[in-house]
Structure formats: structure tokens, C-alpha cells
Design goal:
The complex is a heterodimer of chains A (400) and B (485).
Chain A lengths: L9 E7 L10 H16 L8 E5 L12 H7 L6 E4 L5 H15 L5 E7 L18 H4 L5 H16 L3 H19 L13 H5 L3 E3 L2 E2 L9 E8 L1 H6 L6 E10 L3 H4 L9 H14 L4 H4 E5 L5 H10 L8 H7 L15 H4 L4 H16 L13 E10 L2 E11 L3
Parallel strand pairs in A: 2-3, 2-4, 9-10
Antiparallel strand pairs in A: 1-7, 1-8, 4-7, 5-6, 8-11, 10-11
Chain B lengths: L2 E8 L3 E4 H8 L13 E4 L6 H13 L7 E7 L10 H8 L7 E5 L5 H16 L2 E8 L8 H5 L3 E8 L5 E10 L5 E2 L8 E2 L2 H23 L9 E3 L7 H9 L21 H10 L7 E7 L2 E9 L11 H7 L2 E3 L2 H7 L19 H6 L1 H4 L3 E5 L5 E2 L17 E5 L5 E3 L3 E3 L9 E8 L4 E6 L12 E12 L4 E10 L6
Parallel strand pairs in B: 2-14, 4-5, 4-6, 11-12
Antiparallel strand pairs in B: 1-7, 1-8, 2-3, 6-7, 8-13, 9-10, 12-13, 15-16, 15-17, 18-20, 18-22, 19-20, 20-21, 22-23
Helix pairs in contact in B: 2-3, 6-7
The chains are: A alpha/beta (400), B alpha+beta (485).
């Protein structure tokens, strides 16, 4: 039995660029913006980094393949740089690589950096791209919101919840994220919205309206990690350590086998169960202080609250409408605005989620600061409900 | 005795209201006003002659390809490929064994009847069964009379010697290079000559000669004809010809102008199927085909006709209809206007022919897999069984999905993804015997989908690659629609 990652690795520093429509910036500009904040926070020199992991998902839109774009952007000194991609969960993959390198002892200090420059397409929404020669011949003609919208009809059917209640909970999810995002100077969208505005927005993919969709943004984020011992030796007292790091990947069951009903994420449930075990968390609803979930669309957030075992099955919509996940609720969710308002530069998103959890635990979240959070969870998902990857990380104060 | 063993047909669900088309064009051509009645069948954006041929064939075969099928011929003047055998795609889609003679019949409106007569003669001589299919989707210029007179449709006939429902009595064919219209190579549209000349010098002089030839060769007299099938967009012509030939004018069949318009090479067969759906045993049917000459062929129905299993045929598909009053949609579907498709429409749509060939059973025939160990049925067929409790390697045997009953598990209407007819409807359908597919859905009216709805898989255009002139086909889920009684 593996001993797990708990408390083997600490975050030494983090950085995050301003997210948004960064018309005047290239990908390398965004990388440098996030990186310089992180090295300053870590209190290290660039050349103290032993190895780096670099996440981009739609690389054909901007930097191209390989680790070279990161090494070039930062002028790294011929250290190992690995480019990773795992759909929209790519950012957490970079983090996993860096954390595992430190935990193994192969590196003392490792960098995880993610970037995405999406706003060079000429149109709104995610870039269109080929899906593979065979897949192109039989996959449905779907957009990302369309794929995730499928959750709604299946969820409604399973739990017998009226469509209006689901739609209203979805709207409240977005209202809450806009409230939070309005307090975040780095967020892409910083304006509050009303529930009526969300409910009456143009339909993108039934029942997902415009305000049920996250921002499509340019941005970067990065983390510098080391062991708690090295961090202490560098004079760091308050440490945030990794408590759990899990990933689950669809294997064709949801897509092709009739055992999955389409109303939830098999991957998230499996990764969540493993993560809680790794972190030693038994009652997530009581123990998790805050979380960032992969709210690419409000319906994703709704079902994920159940898949993370925070809401009872079929009850997340009530928790949402009761304010359970609001900034002043029991488990604040998307306290930084989430993908919805902070934005979703794909390769950076998983690291952006960690950036907020890290900032909150260290008490640096300014207007958004929560009262003494203990465990922060990030849920970073990519793909579509029937075929996806879900990664979960849990970070918290290092008590060692 | 050989002849027709089974029939099938297909008429697209959409019917363009002629009055709507006339209203849009009357400012330009006031002469169209007389044609403002009834409706014409029109293909959905994802239908063409090939997809209609597949549906007509499925209607004819009822899911089972006869083991003794020797030939498969496909007649059309609007074949989707100029050089890639279209009958070969049809054969693959129908999951026909590769040991079959396939061929396209083209280049004249008479291809439907001429091809049928050839197939009947071959079946007579060689035995076995033969599938003959005709389909047409003719593009016409906006504001033309042809736009209002034509319709899209297909018919399929299974020919053979056992359980014959309509015996082949005889035929006569006449070749006359009479050019009522033509379409030059690489031309988009027909060029038409004056109707009065076509009527007087063409129909009235050429068809009677074909009938004369026929009646001199077969043991049937004109007054014995119970059903006279003769497509003509000039409605009064068949009655006049019947009179000239001594055929009872009561036997003249409707050209289905009010319901669907004239479906080109398919139309004589469409009208024949329409007859077979109501004919009684022992009736005599005369079918005339027209185009650079004329064909005349006689059938006599048998007692087996009454025992033929239920099918949609022309009547069923005519009843499965939705009126379309948006003329602009008709223009768009037929690429008669330059539409703004947006940047999302620019995605490269190249097909890797190597990959299509490797996967042709999966993509064209909709073949999935069945685990020989645990019995799990899945699509696509894979190296590993998808049953979480099995996951065995290399146990998958071919399992056809085309005729599997499908039910909607979830769905959405996507306005964002590029579609020629937004919103794009799709969702997971589960199949009765097992397996599922995240499927495109077609022939869907906005706001009508529901979880649990029964669907039927249909062979449709997946997308066009305008850069390379290639059309991709795959299977989609369409609502099962009970035809009106």
C-alpha cells in the first residue's frame, strides 16, 4: 500500500497572472507575469529550480508543443522541462509532476507552470479543433457547453427534480461566483449579476445559458514546491503542504457501458474517495473548509458538489439555494470567482485554483479572506461527462 | 416465375409548402402562381440520394439482407460521388457481403425503369435475389418551375423468384435522343426546353410507340391494365396517353404532385410502390419510364402480396411529414444561397481515407461488438470489453447496431457548435440489446426531445468537406414517428 503524498511536499511560492482578454500579451508574457510573482514569493533565484512541468492544453493555439516554450520564456538553464496535457485538468498535472519530483527526492525545488492564450481565435467560446481522424467520423457534433448540458437532463430524470429548480440553482451558482469574482482584482469578470439576468440569458446549449458558462480567458499560474524540511531551512514558518493528490481517468465505461446514468462524474467520485483517504479526511462536509471546483458550467458545479461528497445525492440544488456554498456559507465554493469569473485559461486553471487555496490558508486573500480555513480542495476536470479526467488535490496548513 | 419480392420507399420528412416558395418568388416570376398548391418533399440538410437509398432499402429488406443476394444496383442522376461507386457505399451501409455485384445506373431520368428491367432480366436468367434502388435529390435554380415540381425521394425493390408479390410479365424499351432537358458534365443545373414541344413531339409521339411495342410482345391487352404508372410533371399527359393506347383512364395513377413532387429517377418506382401498397392480388400494373426514349414494363400481382410484412412504403413516409414554410431554409439546405457559416465552420474536415477504410464497418455499416465471454454489447467495438466486471482482451465479435432500438438517456440542443441547421441536437442513446452512443440527432423539432423517447438509427451525412468535395456519412438517432393512419 502506497504511503501517499500527505505532507511530503510544501508549496514554497505561487504566482498568477491577471486573467482575461489579454489582447496585448503573448503566452510568454503571461508566463513571466505569473512566474515572477512566484519566485518572489518563494524567495529563491530562478536557477535554484531543479526541474519544471509545463501545462498547456490547446498548444496549437499559441506556444506549440514540448517543454521548450517554458524554458525559452523563463530562460531556464537547460534544466528538465516536461510539457503535460490532460484536457482542462492539465494545470493539476503540472503540479502533480513537480510534487512527485520533490517527493521522490529527484528534485529539491520544482516548478509547475501553466498557461493558455485562448483569445486569438476570432470568436467567443473555446477554440474549435480536430478530435482525431476516427473520432471525427463518429463523435457527435457537440460544443463543450453542449457536452456538459447533457448532465442536466440525466440529473433531472434521476432525481425527479423539476427543471425550474435545477435552472434556478444553476443561476444561483453563477450569481455566487460573480459576487466572489467582484472582489478579485485578478479575475476576468468582476461584475456582480442578478439571478434574473442569469435565468434570462441567451441559451447556449439547453439548459445552459450564457451566464452558466465560464469565462474563456488568457492567463498563467505557477507553483514552486519543495519539501517541508527545505522550506523550513529557508526560514519559512507558515507552510501549506499537499495533503492529497489524486487523478481518475475514464476508461470507456461511461461512453460505452449502460451502467452509468449520465447524471454524475464517475471519475470525480473515485478521485474524491481516494483523496479523502490519502488526506485522512473522514467527513468531508464537516472537514473541508473551502473548495475550488471545476465550474466550467454551472451544472458541472452542481453535480460535482455531490460527487465530492459535500452534498447528499440529489440535494446539491437545495444547498446551493440555501447559501451553503456562498462566501459566508459553511463551505465557500469558488471564493476567487472560479472558472466562471476568474476565468479559464485551460493549462493554468488547476494551478489558479491552488493559488487561491494557498492564499486563503496563508491569510493573504484580502477582501475575500475566509476565517482560518484548514483544508482547501481543488477539483480540476477535463473532457466531457462521458469521457473525462478528474484530478483532486487537497492542501492545508503543515503541522509537522 | 420471377418478379418483385418486396418493396420499400423513402420520402424525406420535410415538405416545402409550395405557396411559401411561390410567395418568395412571385415578384420575379409571376407565372409560378399556378403552382402554389400542395407541397414538395425536401431533404433535410443531412440527406442526399445515398441516404435516401439506404432508408428505402432498409424499408424494403426489413433488417435482413437475403443470403442469396447477387446484385445491388443504385439508380440516380444525383449520385453523391462521380467516381466512387455509390452502390458500394450503399452495400456497405446495408452490411451486404462483399461477394455481390454492385453498380450505379445513371445519366437519364429513365435510369430507374431501365435499371429495373435489366435487373429483372438478370434475375430471371440467373436466379437468386437482386436489390434495385433508385433515389434522386435534384438541385434546381431558385425561382424555377422545376423547384416547385420536383421532390426528393427513393424506392427500393427486391427482385427474386420465391414469394413473388408482383410477377414480371414483360417489357419494351425505346431509345430516342429526345432532349426535353439535359445537364452537361460538371453543370449544377438542368437546362430545359419548351413544355408544349415536350408534350406534343415527345410524350405523345414516343410513349405510344413504346406501348405499342410492349403490347405486341406481352400477353396483356391495354384494357386489362388496372394501374397505369407514368410519372410526368405535366399532369394531364398520362391520361391522354392512356386514352391513345386504349388503357382505361381510371387506371391512371396519381403522380403524387400534391404530396411530394416528382422524385426523378426514383419516381416511377415510388409510384409503383404506392400502387403495390393498395393493389389486390391478380392486378396488372403498367409502369412507364421516360427519358431519351421510354421504358414500359408490366407486372401482375400475386396472392403473396397480401402476406407481405408491414412496412412504411410511400404511404407511411408520406404520412411522416413536417411542413416547412421557410423557403430560406430550403435554399440553404440546397446551397442555393451563400450562407454566413461563421469562423467555427472553418474547421478542417479532411477525412483520412486510410482510417475510414480500416473502420468502414464501424462507420458505414454501424457495426459494434459483442463480448464472447460476458455477452456485453458495445459501440465502438474495442480490444477490451467495456463491462467493468469483465475487461477481457480480444473477445469482441461483430454486432450490428443499425436496427437496434434506441432510447434517449440524455439530450441537449446546442446553439454554439457549428451546424447547418442549429441547434445541434445530440445526446446519449441506449440500445435495447445493450450498448450506447453519444449520437447526433436528426429530424428533431426544437423542444420535442425527452428522456426515454424512442429513437431509430438512420444513415445520414455527418458533414461535408467543401475543400475536398468529400461527404462523410454516419448514423444518427431520429425520433420514431408513428405515421398517421
Amino acid at each position: 500500500m502506497a504511503s501517499g503524498i500527505k505532507d511530503k511536499v510544501a508549496i514554497l511560492g505561487m504566482g498568477c497572472s491577471k486573467f482575461g482578454e489579454r489582447w496585448d500579451k503573448n503566452a510568454d508574457d503571461l508566463i513571466v507575469e505569473g512566474f515572477q510573482e512566484a519566485v518572489a514569493d518563494a524567495g529563491i533565484e530562478r536557477d535554484q529550480i531543479d526541474a519544471a512541468w509545463f501545462s498547456t492544453a490547446i498548444e496549437e493555439m499559441h506556444v506549440g508543443k514540448s517543454g521548450v516554450p517554458l524554458a525559452e520564456a523563463l530562460g531556464l538553464d537547460y534544466i528538465p522541462v516536461t510539457r503535460v496535457e490532460n484536457y482542462c485538468a492539465s494545470g493539476t498535472e503540472a503540479f502533480r509532476g513537480a510534487v512527485y519530483a520533490v517527493a521522490s527526492g529527484a528534485a529539491d525545488i520544482a516548478l509547475a507552470a501553466g498557461v493558455e492564450k485562448l483569445k486569438d481565435t476570432g470568436y467567443g467560446g473555446l477554440p474549435q479543433r480536430g478530435r482525431g481522424t476516427l473520432n471525427n467520423m463518429f463523435w457527435a457534433n457537440s460544443s463543450a457547453p453542449g457536452n456538459f448540458a447533457l448532465l442536466a437532463s440525466a440529473y433531472q430524470e434521476k432525481h425527479g427534480i423539476p427543471a425550474e429548480n435545477i435552472k434556478r440553482a444553476m443561476a444561483q451558482i453563477s450569481v455566487k461566483s460573480h459576487e466572489n469574482g467582484a472582489k478579485n482584482p485578478k479575475a476576468h469578470l468582476q461584475k456582480e449579476i442578478t439571478i434574473d439576468k442569469a435565468l434570462n440569458a441567451p441559451m447556449i446549449a439547453d439548459p445552459i445559458g450564457l451566464f452558466d458558462c465560464c469565462g474563456v480567458s488568457d492567463g498563467s499560474a505557477c507553483a514552486i514546491v519543495t519539501t517541508p524540511e527545505i522550506a523550513r531551512s529557508m526560514g519559512k514558518s507558515d507552510l501549506v503542504s499537499v495533503k492529497a493528490l489524486q487523478l481518475a481517468v475514464s476508461n470507456g465505461t461511461e461512453q460505452s457501458h449502460n451502467s452509468w446514468d449520465g447524471s454524475y462524474f464517475m471519475t470525480t467520485r473515485k478521485a474524491a474517495a481516494r483523496a479523502y483517504k490519502e488526506a485522512g479526511i473522514e467527513k468531508p462536509r464537516d472537514e473541508i473548509s473551502m473548495f475550488e471546483c471545476h465550474d466550467c458550467f454551472s451544472i458541472t458545479e452542481l453535480v460535482t458538489m455531490e460527487d465530492l461528497y459535500l452534498s447528499e445525492e440529489g440535494q446539491a440544488w437545495r444547498d446551493v439555494l440555501d447559501g451553503f456554498y456562498n462566501s459566508d456559507g459553511q463551505i465557500p465554493c469558488q471564493i476567487d470567482g472560479g472558472l466562471k469569473c476568474f476565468g479559464h485559461p485551460i493549462g493554468a486553471s488547476g494551478l489558479r485554483m491552488l493559488y487561491e487555496m494557498y492564499s486563503q490558508i496563508l491569510g493573504r486573500a484580502d477582501a475575500r479572506q475566509l476565517d482560518n480555513p484548514r483544508f482547501g480542495l481543488t477539483h480540476n476536470l477535463g473532457g466531457a461527462p462521458h469521457r473525462n479526467v478528474a484530478s483532486i488535490s487537497i492542501v492545508g496548513k503543515y503541522d509537522g | 416465375m420471377s418478379g418483385i419480392v418486396a418493396y420499400g420507399a423513402y420520402v424525406p420528412r420535410l415538405r416545402l409548402n409550395r405557396a411559401a416558395a411561390v410567395e418568395a418568388n412571385a415578384w420575379f416570376n409571376a407565372g409560378l402562381k399556378g403552382l402554389a398548391k400542395g407541397e414538395r418533399s425536401m431533404c433535410n440538410w443531412d440527406e442526399d440520394s445515398l441516404t435516401m437509398a439506404v432508408e428505402a432499402s432498409r424499408d424494403c429488406l426489413g433488417g435482413d439482407v437475403p443470403g442469396d443476394l447477387k446484385t445491388l444496383a443504385f439508380a440516380s442522376t444525383t449520385l453523391p460521388f462521380e467516381d466512387r461507386q455509390n452502390a458500394g457505399i450503399l452495400a456497405t451501409a446495408l452490411n451486404v457481403d462483399e461477394n455481390v455485384v454492385t453498380g450505379d445506373v445513371a445519366a437519364t431520368q429513365r435510369a430507374g425503369t431501365s435499371g429495373l428491367i435489366s435487373a429483372l432480366k438478370a434475375t430471371n436468367a440467373e436466379g437468386g435475389t437482386s436489390l434495385f434502388v433508385a433515389a434522386d435529390k435534384r438541385r434546381t435554380k431558385s425561382g424555377s418551375t422545376q423547384e416547385l415540381l420536383f421532390g426528393d425521394g427513393a424506392a427500393a425493390l427486391l427482385l427474386g423468384s420465391d414469394n413473388v408479390i408482383a410477377e414480371y410479365v414483360g417489357s419494351h424499351q425505346l431509345a430516342v435522343d429526345f432532349i426535353d432537358h439535359y445537364r452537361g458534365a460538371n453543370e449544377e443545373f438542368d437546362y430545359n426546353w419548351e413544355e408544349r414541344w415536350i408534350r406534343d413531339e415527345g410524350y405523345f409521339k414516343i410513349v405510344p410507340r413504346a406501348l405499342e411495342g410492349l403490347f405486341s410482345e406481352v400477353d396483356v391487352t391495354p384494357d386489362q391494365i388496372d394501374h397505369f404508372v407514368m410519372p410526368s410533371v405535366m399532369g394531364a399527359v398520362p391520361s391522354k396517353i392512356a386514352k391513345m393506347a386504349g388503357i382505361n383512364t381510371d387506371a391512371v395513377r396519381s403522380n403524387l404532385h400534391a404530396e411530394m413532387g416528382e422524385s426523378g429517377t426514383a419516381h416511377a418506382l415510388v409510384m409503383l410502390v404506392d400502387v403495390l401498397q393498395e393493389a389486390k392480388p391478380g392486378e396488372t400494373i403498367l409502369v412507364v419510364g421516360w427519358g431519351q426514349g421510354a421504358d414500359a414494363v408490366v407486372f401482375r400481382t400475386t396472392d403473396a402480396l397480401a402476406k407481405l410484412s408491414a412496412r412504411e412504403g410511400v404511404k407511411g413516409y408520406l404520412a411522416r411529414r413536417r411542413e416547412e414554410t421557410n423557403y430560406n431554409k430550403f435554399l440553404s439546405f440546397n446551397e442555393l444561397v451563400t450562407k454566413e457559416h461563421g469562423l467555427r465552420g472553418e474547421l478542417d474536415k479532411q477525412t483520412a481515407l486510410t482510417s475510414l477504410y480500416r473502420n468502414k464497418e464501424m462507420i458505414t455499416a454501424f457495426m459494434g461488438g459483442k463480448c464472447s465471454k460476458c455477452g456485453t454489447i458495445q459501440f465502438p467495438k474495442a480490444n477490451v470489453c467495456v463491462n467493468p466486471n469483465c475487461r477481457e482482451f480480444h473477445t469482441q465479435e461483430d454486432h450490428p447496431f443499425a436496427n437496434a432500438k434506441a432510447t434517449i438517456m440524455n439530450w441537449t440542443a446546442d446553439n454554439l457548435t457549428y451546424s447547418l441547421d442549429p441547434p445541434s441536437h445530440f445526446g446519449i442513446v441506449t440500445f435495447e440489446e445493450g450498448g450506447r452512443l453519444l449520437a447526433d440527432m436528426t429530424d428533431v423539432d426544437k423542444g420535442t426531445l425527452e428522456v426515454g423517447m424512442q429513437m431509430r438509427m438512420v444513415f445520414r451525412v455527418k458533414e461535408h468537406d467543401p475543400q475536398r468535395g468529400f461527404t462523410k456519412y454516419f448514423w444518427k438517432a431520429a425520433p420514431v414517428q408513428k405515421a398517421a393512419a
